[in-house]
Here is the input.
Amino acid sequence: MPNITTLLKNEIARLARKEVRIQTEALKKASAQYRKRIAEMKRQVSELQRKVASLEKQLSTSASTSTPTSNAARTYRFSPRGLQSRRKRLGLSAADFGKLVGVTGQTIYKWEKGLSRPRDKQLAALAAVRGMGKKEALARLKELG
Here is the structure.
């Protein structure tokens, strides 16, 4: 007749293995799903990187064939009073005018008060807004959200 302690030990070990197997099954399934998602995302990233590389190549070839008088070579004049009058003529708040230019309303306020000056890129955006009418500016604001 076998020893009762040995039987109890074996039964406890068997039940423990069974319980561990049940508990880890869900983790194995989740892990497999995560690996599939990661592999899919890696494929998407590599595809997007290829697209970006081809677009950069197209951009560099079109930039080399463009005329030498690009926006970067142009110089723009800036006056705080002119900015303020343009904004008021369009009937926009500083925040809305900032959305058109690509800056914050606080930045527009500082430019109007003469506390700071716009950078070259921002001057180009201001020049683009300078050519807009009231309806066009409002339509552009709706596009930007």
User: Anything to note?
Assistant: DSSP finds six helices and no strands in the chain. The domain at 80-144 is CATH 1.10.260.40 (434 Repressor (Amino-terminal Domain)).
